[in-house]
Structures are given as structure tokens and as C-alpha cells.
């Protein structure tokens, strides 16, 4: 599948929740071959060298017929702030589609659980859309979305998924919307007690969420894929910067790495040595005003 | 390659000869920033470039350093990849054949923990068809053994180069580190030991810290700085190196545009390597090549060799005929 570089036009930019924006991009060379779970590298600076590197973003929604994709971005630093301020009509340099996407279920009778923490909803939405249009057309009740955020103001409205019949459970850490607690609390509440496990689980979220979820699924017979993150420079397998510590089945003590941009970002959590994963530095937003 | 084969009479002649290494143009890609070349074949025709320097290869595969391995810094990036590579065996089996098929001029960057490892790599790679030259990496800041330890000591540098020289007749490039007191001294040592060409610079030893978490941004704590932030350092290193040795020099460091590349050529680099820019724009090296061609046309430069090393350091005062004290004037003051 060819990867391309193109100037993508920003058609729309919307604030969807506190600190979260949705951009609609016209990228007719990239979108036709893109799949849910894949991502693009977006050059944020239009010219000049600051910020120098492009930033990775998952496909949030794909509208293949129109050559459009949507990305959802959470402002965490200079790059995402600049991108959130870009006006419709301007263009960004985009490389994609990159990485491995999700492995979609093949049967409509599979019960599929989605676990999204915060901005982790970004890649899962594309897969939900895809299943609603293919295997699970007519069976939306077998799609269960668990979506959590810190607080109500950070939640993105997903009324259309509910209307489509997807079973949705919302949670917030402070209880300002849905159930109080983490998204994992919500998942465990339903499925710890259930005699039946979902067939598949797809997840994307913060590192603590991923670590705990990886622990939870290890003891259960569920097929799992997670969209994972790492710092990236190129996104195309050239710099070898995006390593994550990986399990070597033959030698558990061996030093092995996976490369998120090529082997992932969608990976089976059993392949990761979670005890060796260092969290990416999360800077509070006040850093910009100091 | 015949002298008369230029399709358009106005097309500038971009061929350069670096001692025994003859290239169709002076734009190469820098090791570690262009993967094994194949990663870029969706984006550009690899045979158009002057050459491709592949990721540093060691005898045995290396897993590299723990993550985080990358951090962004103002106009640059820090990396501590730790020379992760597939090892020479898999390189020859899996990477080289498809690369050769694409018509690329291939230069292999080599590294070892000991002098003998460098020498052994050279002899393994010597017998292989399709390798145009070897680049000896004695300047990587991200590994404990070998790497920069060899590149900061003129005697060690000379030992590595001599050992490699003894095992191959391929053109040899020695890649120098900026993390030294006198790059000229290392340059002379490498040249005297048999290096046909020198390339400079490798990354600049550097660091980034997060004040909130109080943690270094790289798991390795320190790493190598690359990108536009290091271009002035690289230019100075090239300037000092071309004056210290009589062999050709390849300029590397922060080259993002054709104008950047031209700065290195005018200072005296016979070719350039494009590094971090490839990571930002996968077609960067080709853009730079096209830009140099356009510049030559516009400036009426028939052959790029007429432009290389034409830095004019003479001082000029438009209304005085007295020279300043910086340099003896090369020609009559204008
Ligand atoms: C495959 C992949 C897909 C992604 N998809 C999305 C998406 O759909 N929506 C979205 O909002 N974000 C996504 N991200 C994260 C996004 O790329 C980062 O938030 C962004 O690069 C930060 O850039 P910045 O300039 O704003 O922050 P910087 O100023 O560069 O950094 C600010 C802080 O964010 C942290 N950070 C930097 N890069 C990353 C990263 N790659 N992942 C996590 N934290 C990082 C840094 O440690 C730093 O402390 C994805 C990341 C990957 C690897
Ligand atoms: C991610 C990365 C990996 C690198 N790996 C190597 C390597 O394996 N061998 C080597 O000699 N130089 C390596 N380098 C150094 C580059 O080849 C180059 O010398 C340096 O980045 C400066 O050029 P630039 O500013 O254009 O990037 C690496 C640089 C980067 C950014
Ligand atoms: S980001 Fe460069 S190899 Fe993955």
C-alpha cells in the first residue's frame, strides 16, 4: 500500500470539547487506501523549523468517497496548539496512511467492546463507523462503547453513535457525567460479573489505562488490540525512534523493541513489556504561560 | 558515463568526484535518517540521488537504547537510538538486494565496539557487489563502547581507519564528531591513516529536561542533537576540516533546503548529506537536489565543481583600498 505525501486542505475546524478540536482534511491521495487504526504525520509549521517535526494523528473518521478524513486533536503542547488554531482554507503537509490498522472482526455475531480513554476515542471511532457499515450492519447492539474522560467538559458528544444503536457507557473521573470512576471501572463492573466475555476488545487511552487493561485481559480469553503511542520523528520506519519495549517469547529477559510506526500503532498488548514502558512526559498547560 | 551525454545543453553538470568515489550529483542522505533506503521508495526515485548512506551496520544485530529515544528541541531534535540495526548478515540478505534493484548508489555506514570489529565488517562488505563506499562511524554519541570514544582520540581514530583500510579497497569515508576540541586534528589523523574522504558532522552531544517532572526527556539522559539548530556548528566544522586536509569533505548538519546545502558547498564540501530533513519531509533530499540545479541555472554555473570551495573570506571596504586584518586579501579590493 503506497504511502504518500500531500498538501491537505483544512476544510473545517471545530472545538469539540475542552482542549479538543476536530479537523476535517481533504487528502484525496491518502484517504482512499486508509484504514481504521492507521495514522498520518502532520507537519504543523507551515514553514520554518519550529516546531520541526511532524506530529502523528490517528484517523478519527474516514469519508473515502469524498477523499476526506477527520482528525481529533487534544492540545498538549506547542504543535497541537498551533494546529488547533489553523484556519479552514489553509493547508498542512500530511504523510500517510501509516502503520498497521485494526484487524476487524469477520463475523456479525461477535460481541465487540471498545474502551476509549479521553482522546483515545480518536482511532476507535473510525473502526466503529466501519463495523456499523460492514459486519455489524443491523447488529449495532453487539458493539459496546466504554468512553471515559476526566470530566464532562472533556467528553465529545457521540449522540449519533447512540442513535445508531451502539451500546454506550460514559464515565468521568469526577462524576460530572455518566458513572463516576475510570473507564476501566465501568468495563470491569459489566464484564467481571458476566458469565460471558466479549469476543473482541479494542482500546486506546492513557498509559495507566493501557497498563491496567493489559493486566485485566491477560487473565481472560479475549482477543485484544490496542492503539499505542510513542514519540515519533518520521512515522515511516526510518529513524527507529518510536521503540516500545517488547516481549521476546524465546527469551523473556532479552532487550527487544517494537516500532510503533511500523509494527503498530495497533498492537496486541501481550507483546509489550509494560513494566519497561516509561510514560511520555505530560506537561500541564500552564507551562505555556511561564 | 560519457562527457557528452547531457540531454539539455543548458543543464548544469552536477557530477562530483570525491577521490575514488564518483557521484552523479552531490546530494546524499545521512546515515540513520534514511533507514535502509527502502522506507523512502514510495516517496522518491532512489536512483536520482547522488547516493544513499544506510543506517549504521554492526556485525551482530543491535537492539538499541530504551525509549524514550526522541525529544524535540528548538529547531532540532535529540535522539538516542543507540545504533539499533539488523546486523550485517540480515542487511546483506534482506536490505541490500532490493536497494540495489532500485539503482541506488549505496554507501554503508559501519560501526563496531572494537577496532577488529570495524575491520571485520569492512572485509565482509568488500566482497559484495553494489556497495560504492564505506563510511566509518567513529562519532556516534549514543553508545558506551566504540562510537564516539574512537572519534574523539586521534590515535584511536587512526587505528580504526588503518585497520579498515587494510581490509578493503572500497572508497573510505570517515565520519567525524563535532564533540571534540579540534576537529582538524582528528581529520588529519583519519586522512593520514588512509581515509579517502571525510564527512562531518555527526550529531552534537546534548540534553533536554522537563522542569515539571524533573526528568530528562531521553531515557539515555543525553543524546545527539541534529537539525537546523546545528547547521552553524557543522559549517564551522567543515570549514576547519577542508583547511586541515587535502582530501574531499562531505558536509552534514541541519541541511533542510538547497540554500543550506549551497552554504556547505561554497565553504568547501564536495558533497552534502541530508539528515533530519528526511524525517520531516520524505522528499527533502530530492527537493534539495532540484534546488541546487535551479540555482546553478539561475546563476549561470555550468558545473557544480566550479562553485565548490569558492568561499570568499577577503574583506572589502568599498571606499578604501586598505585591507582589514582578518585575512590577507585573496585578490585586489574592489
Ligand atoms: C500513532 C499515534 C497516533 C496519535 N493520534 C492522536 C490523535 O488522534 N489525537 C491526538 O490528539 N493525539 C494523538 N497522538 C498524540 C500526538 O501526536 C501528540 O499529542 C503530539 O505529538 C504532541 O505534540 P505537541 O507539539 O502539541 O506537544 P509537544 O510540545 O511536542 O509535547 C507536549 C507533551 O506531549 C508529550 N508528547 C509528545 N509527543 C507525544 C506523543 N506522540 N504521544 C503522546 N504524548 C506526546 C510530550 O512528552 C510533551 O511533554 C498520537 C500519537 C501517536 C504516536
Ligand atoms: C535518528 C538519527 C539516527 C542516526 N543514526 C546514525 C547512524 O546510525 N550512523 C551515523 O553515522 N550517524 C547517524 N546519525 C547522524 C546523522 O547521520 C547526521 O550526521 C546528523 O543527524 C546531522 O545531520 P542533520 O542535522 O542533517 O540531521 C543519526 C541521526 C539521527 C537524527
Ligand atoms: S517514528 Fe521513525 S521509525 Fe517510527
Automatic annotation (TrEMBL), chain A:
One of its GO terms (biological process) is pyrimidine nucleotide biosynthetic process. GO terms for molecular function: 2 iron, 2 sulfur cluster binding; flavin adenine dinucleotide binding; metal ion binding; oxidoreductase activity. FAD binds at residues 55-58, 72-74, 79-80. The keyword Transport applies. [2Fe-2S] cluster binds at residues 234, 239, 242, 261. Residues 3-104 form the FAD-binding FR-type domain. Belongs to the PyrK family. It comes from the Bacteria. Binds 1 [2Fe-2S] cluster per subunit. The keyword Transmembrane helix does not apply. Keywords: 2Fe-2S, Electron transport, FAD, Flavoprotein, Iron, Iron-sulfur, Metal-binding, Transport. This is Dihydroorotate oxidase B electron transfer subunit. Its cofactor is [2Fe-2S] cluster; FAD. InterPro entries: Cbr1-like_FAD-bd_dom (IPR008333), Cyt_c3_hydrogenase_gsu (IPR012165), Dihydroorotate_DH_ele_sf (IPR037117), Dihydroorotate_DH_Fe-S-bd (IPR019480), FAD-bd_FR_type (IPR017927), FNR_nucleotide-bd (IPR039261), OxRdtase_FAD/NAD-bd (IPR001433), PyrK_electron_transfer (IPR050353).
TrEMBL record, chain B:
It catalyses: (S)-dihydroorotate + A = orotate + AH2. SUPFAM superfamilies: FMN-linked oxidoreductases (SSF51395). Its cofactor is FMN. GO terms for molecular function: dihydroorotate dehydrogenase activity. Pfam families: DHO_dh. Coiled coil: none annotated. InterPro entries: Aldolase_TIM, DHO_dehydrogenase, DHOD_1B, Dihydroorotate_DH_1, Dihydroorotate_DH_1_2, Dihydroorotate_DH_cat, Dihydroorotate_DH_CS, Dihydroorotate_DH_I. It comes from the Bacteria. FMN binds at residues 31, 55-56, 109, 137, 175, 201, 227, 253-254, 275-276. The active site is at 140 (nucleophile). Transmembrane segments: none annotated. Belongs to the dihydroorotate dehydrogenase family. Type 1 subfamily. Heterotetramer of 2 PyrK and 2 PyrD type B subunits. This is Dihydroorotate dehydrogenase. It comes from Desulfosoma caldarium. The gene is pyrD.
Amino acid at each position: 500500500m503506497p504511502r504518500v505525501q500531500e498538501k491537505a486542505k483544512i476544510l473545517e475546524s471545530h472545538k469539540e470539547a475542552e482542549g479538543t478540536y476536530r479537523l476535517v482534511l481533504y487528502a484525496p491521495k491518502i484517504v482512499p487506501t486508509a484504514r481504521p487504526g492507521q495514522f498520518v504525520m502532520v507537519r504543523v509549521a507551515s514553514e520554518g523549523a519550529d516546531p520541526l517535526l511532524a506530529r502523528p494523528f490517528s484517523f478519527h473518521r474516514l469519508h473515502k468517497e469524498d477523499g476526506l478524513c477527520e482528525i481529533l486533536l487534544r492540545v498538549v503542547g506547542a504543535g497541537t496548539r498551533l494546529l488547533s488554531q489553523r484556519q479552514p482554507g489553509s493547508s498542512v503537509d500530511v504523510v500517510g496512511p501509516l502503520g498497521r490498522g485494526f484487524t476487524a472482526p469477520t463475523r456479525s455475531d461477535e460481541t465487540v467492546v471498545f474502551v476509549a480513554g479521553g482522546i483515545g476515542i480518536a482511532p476507535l471511532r473510525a473502526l466503529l463507523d466501519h463495523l456499523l457499515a460492514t459486519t455489524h450492519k443491523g447488529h449495532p447492539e453487539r458493539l459496546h462503547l466504554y468512553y471515559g474522560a476526566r470530566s464532562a467538559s472533556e467528553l465529545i458528544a457521540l449522540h449519533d453513535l447512540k442513535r445508531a444503536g451502539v451500546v454506550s457507557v460514559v464515565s468521568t473521573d469526577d462524576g460530572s457525567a455518566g458513572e463516576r470512576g475510570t473507564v476501566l471501572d465501568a468495563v470491569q463492573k459489566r464484564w467481571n460479573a458476566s458469565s460471558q466475555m466479549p469476543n473482541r476488545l479494542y482500546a486506546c487511552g492513557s498509559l495507566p489505562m493501557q497498563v491496567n487493561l493489559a493486566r485485566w485481559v491477560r487473565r481472560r480469553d479475549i482477543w485484544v488490540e490496542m492503539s499505542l503511542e510513542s514519540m515519533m520523528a518520521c512515522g515511516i520506519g526510518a529513524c527507529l525512534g518510536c521503540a516500545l519495549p517488547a516481549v521476546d517469547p524465546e527469551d523473556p529477559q532479552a532487550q527487544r523493541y517494537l516500532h510503533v510506526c511500523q509494527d503498530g500503532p495497533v498492537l496486541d498488548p501481550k507483546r509489550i513489556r509494560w513494566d519497561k514502558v516509561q510514560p511520555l512526559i505530560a506537561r500541564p498547560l500552564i507551562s505555556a504561560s511561564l | 558515463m560519457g562527457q557528452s551525454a547531457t540531454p539539455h545543453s543548458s543543464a548544469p553538470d552536477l557530477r562530483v568526484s570525491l577521490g575514488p568515489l564518483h557521484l552523479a550529483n552531490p546530494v546524499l542522505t545521512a546515515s540513520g535518517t534514511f533507514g535502509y533506503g527502502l522506507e523512502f521508495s514510495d516517496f522518491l526515485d532512489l536512483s536520482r540521488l547522488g547516493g544513499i548512506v544506510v543506517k549504521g551496520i554492526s556485525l551482530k544485530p543491535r537492539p538499541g537504547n530504551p525509549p524514550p529515544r526522541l525529544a524535540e528541541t528548538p529547531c532540532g531534535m535529540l535522539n538516542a537510538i543507540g545504533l539499533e540495526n539488523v546486523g550485517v548478515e540480515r542487511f546483506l540478505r534482506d536490505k541490500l538486494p532490493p536497494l540495489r534493484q532500485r539503482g541506488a548508489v549505496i554507501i554503508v555506514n559501519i560501526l563496531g565496539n572494537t577496532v577488529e570489529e570495524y575491520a571485520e565488517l569492512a572485509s565482509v562488505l568488500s566482497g559484495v557487489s553494489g556497495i560504492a563506499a564505506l563510511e566509518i562511524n567513529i562519532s556516534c554519541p549514543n553508545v558506551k563502547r566504540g562510537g564516539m570514544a574512537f572519534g574523539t582520540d586521534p590515535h584511536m581514530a587512526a587505528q580504526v581507519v588503518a585497520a579498515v583500510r587494510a581490509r578493503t579497497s572500497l572508497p573510505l569515508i570517515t565520519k567525524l564528531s563535532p564533540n571534540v576540541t579540534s576537529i582538524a586534528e582528528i581529520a588529519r589523523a583519519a586522512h593520514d591513516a588512509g581515509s579517502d574522504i571525510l564527512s562531518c558532522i555527526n550529531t552534537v552531544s546534548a540534553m533536554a529536561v522537563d522542569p515539571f517532572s524533573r526528568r530528562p526527556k531521553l531515557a539515555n539522559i543525553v543524546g545527539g542533537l541534529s537539525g537546523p539548530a546545528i547547521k552553524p556548528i557543522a559549517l564551522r566544522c567543515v570549514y576547519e576540516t577542508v583547511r586541515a586536509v587535502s582530501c574531499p569533505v562531505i558536509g552534514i548538519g541541519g541541511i533542510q533546503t538547497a540554500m543550506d546545502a549551497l552554504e556547505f558547498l561554497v565553504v568547501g564540501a564536495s558533497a552534502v548529506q541530508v539528515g533530519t530533513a528526511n524525517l520531516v519531509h520524505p522528499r527533502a533530499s530530492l527537493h534539495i537536489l532540484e534546488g541546487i540545479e535551479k540555482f546553478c541555472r539561475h546563476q549561470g554555473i555550468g558545473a557544480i565543481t566550479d562553485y565548490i570551495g569558492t568561499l570568499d573570506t577577503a574583506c572589502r571596504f568599498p571606499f578604501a583600498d586598505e585591507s582589514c586584518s582578518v585575512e590577507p586579501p585573496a585578490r585586489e579590493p574592489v
